[in-house]
Fold:
Amino acid sequence: MMTVIMGGSGSGKSAYAEALACAETAVEKRYYVATMQVYDAEGAARVEKHRDMRAGKGFLTIEQPCDIGDICSKIEPKESLVLLECMSNLVANEMFRGAKPKAGAEVVADIVAQLTMLCGCVSHLIIVTNNVFEDGTLYDSDTMNYIEALGRMNEKLAELADEVIEVVYTIPLTLQRREPCR
Structure:
């Protein structure tokens, strides 16, 4: 099963995703896959905030800023839940990991292939992603390419997901719910 949780900055999407993961009783292990790369004190503070939020909740943390498909070799498969936090970091990390940015379509295709593999080796994959499309601001071309790639990624996630939930002001709104194919 794949669940996508989306929302704006400070919406409560991470707390909701963690609560959803903790409520899942049919799993033996819960993994928290952190995709953020820390570059400065602000990033370190954000990571610490998220560690504090999940303290005592039974998550096994895996730091994986790129190559998300590698997670399958780091977890006990099948009766496991993976909470991936978050897609916006993963897309940026993959897009900007080389000397020049990768094309958005290439990044989306690569991540989708890896997520498909990951989804096949766990019982529940919860993905947190950001809604960064509502500020109406024009940015430089690399940033606009990133925003467009994240938009395409979110569209693809919605196609693949069994459930899509948007969190607005800490209120979860179910946008889509399908019976899992498995």
Notes: The mean pLDDT is 92. The radius of gyration is 16 Å. The beta strands are 2-7, 29-34, 59-63, 78-85, 122-130, 163-168, 171-177. The domain at 2-177 is CATH 3.40.50.300 (Rossmann fold).
